[in-house]
Amino acid sequence: MTPTELIFLVAIFFLTSVIGVVTGSNSLITVPVMLEFDINPARAIATNMFALIFMSIGGTIPFLKSDVLKRPDLSLLSVLTVIGSILGALLVIIIPADTMPLLISIFMIAVTVFSVTNKNKGLEKQEKPSPTALKIGYGLTFGLGIYGGFFSGGYVTTLTATFIGFLNMTFIEAVAITKVLNIFSSIIATLIFMTQGLVDYQLGIILGITMFFGAIIGAKVTMKMSNLWLRRIFLVVVVFLAVRNLWQWIS
């Protein structure tokens, strides 16, 4: 990789980490960019996952002094994520990579439809979810943990929608909680990738430090925004990514 290509890659990772604190789906942009530089697909996924550890930590730090992380079920959500991520990371060598754009597009479209038809979800504090909603929310957390450990592209986005839709979180709460869970998901997946020798540590550290500072900036900006504006940004990016990935699959 030439110095010019590295600078371009760093710029892309920085911008996506700033915006991705709210929207997630960084990997839908960063991994394809890495593939354009002839990085092996499995190595690109593994190195990107390694960098996501730094981003998730950076995105969590600004929320530590707020009340949005004080949820009694955070430990349960973390355990479900860890177990799912272990299973997901083991699927990288099994599931064909060319199926991912269609799968991701379906997730994105589902998130968009849900968000549009539930306009008030995530804007204000709501009553405690029903037992059924809790079971669905926890089940999806586990299932998405599997997907997050496998690829991560669209994982945080769909997890954010799950928390808002079934666990009655506000947007700011969901953004903060997903950053914490993504730390666990990324670490577990990266450890498994390391045993397979797939992580490019030199590139991963450079991109990881870039994403760490980008996420801190993004999180600080997020804390100053209302849930309404977070919802608007979330929907715009999700629609864009859904169309982009569907077009990629059709092409």
Automatic annotation (TrEMBL):
Keyword line: Cell membrane, Membrane, Transmembrane, Transmembrane helix, Transport
Pfam family, one: TauE
Record has Cell membrane as a keyword: yes
Keyword set includes Protein biosynthesis: no
Localization in the cell: Cell membrane
InterPro entries, per database record: TM_pro_TauE-like, TSUP
Domain of life: Bacteria
Ranges that cross the membrane: 6-33, 45-64, 76-95, 138-167, 174-195, 201-221, 233-250
Mode of membrane association: Multi-pass membrane protein
Family of this protein: Belongs to the 4-toluene sulfonate uptake permease (TSUP) (TC 2.A.102) family.
Protein name: Probable membrane transporter protein
Species for this entry: Cyanobacterium stanieri LEGE 03274
